[in-house]
Amino acid sequence: MPGTSASERPQVKRKLELDNAVAAELSGTQDEVLRTLEENLDCSIYLRGNVLTLEGDDDAVDAAAQVVREVSDLVARGHEIAPGTIQAIQGALQQHESPSRVLEDVVWRHRSTKVAPKTVNQKRYVDSIRRNTITFGVGPAGTGKTWLAVAMAAAALSRREVNRIILTRPAVEAGERLGFLPGDLMAKVDPYLRPLFDALHDMIDPERVSAHLERGVIEVAPLAFMRGRTLNDSFIILDEAQNTTPEQMKMFLTRLGFNSKMVVTGDVTQIDLPSDQRSGLISVAEVLDAVDGIQFIRFGGEDVVRHKLVQRIVAAYAEHQQRLAPELRPAAADRKRA
């Protein structure tokens, strides 16, 4: 009824008989998945044997039943259900997307590692990489921008769609001075490029990575090393692009050669450039947003797939920034300087 609070609405109970495999996935380790299901849905959930009981108002029970049906379908297809899977299913349903379409798009498999989108935006991101020559992934830490891009690059290399992978990022220190770094070139740039190496080693055996690096099949280098080159038959990833200048961004994008793809990732809330220097990632959106063959995918806090606390940290910082100093948000600051 209009004006009736959730606590005053009639409570209903619905029992669902589950396949034994689905019941086993939901119970999991210490009912972790079941508890996550309950936390993300506005009803009480009880599992006895293979009978799941949903208790709440009509709308909440209907929504929960739909999520359980999606879980059942995924289990039937061999999908492992984790707490993050429940959140991904709910997020997909809220955006009127098919959860199985999102979660079953496996872009790369390596031993026990299976890389697939976990949110609707991540699915749009990998679809954009497939369709477009250049994709920009812009959003906060933990949204899978680099991880998914490296997985797509590894898959493209394995299918021989490209001859090499090039990973680069600007060598800008994140608020701390590293000082003199001993060793050869790779030792000097390693602190800047380590996150890219970590992602590579998650996707490909370390021995294979080393062999590819020696033969130039995989190249990991600072952005300055891209100047003057034309990159053909390559899958090129520019990470931490918020720390490029507009001139560096233009230089990088014009390195594009034939039969190549580019993925540019960054977070405009973590710019480490001097305060008077404009970010190339912000300016490029103004210049290229309507160009065919280029797509911008913008991630939000709801796409954070690291520890749940990371999502809360991202949201808290965004709220604090907006509340106390909206004029200092990157987009606004850049518009003033433009």
From TrEMBL:
Any one GO CC term of the record: cytosol
UniProt cross-references to Pfam families, sorted A to Z: PhoH
Keyword terms: ATP-binding, Cytoplasm, Nucleotide-binding
UniProt KW Membrane keyword: no
Domain of life: Bacteria
Keyword Ion transport (UniProt): no
PhoH-like protein domain mapped to chain residues: 115-317
InterPro entries: P-loop_NTPase, PhoH, PhoH2-like
GO terms assigned for molecular function: ATP binding
Compartment(s): Cytoplasm
Protein family membership: Belongs to the PhoH family.
PANTHER family found in the cross-reference section: PHOH-LIKE PROTEIN (PTHR30473:SF1), PROTEIN PHOH (PTHR30473)
UniProt-recorded name of the protein: PhoH-like protein
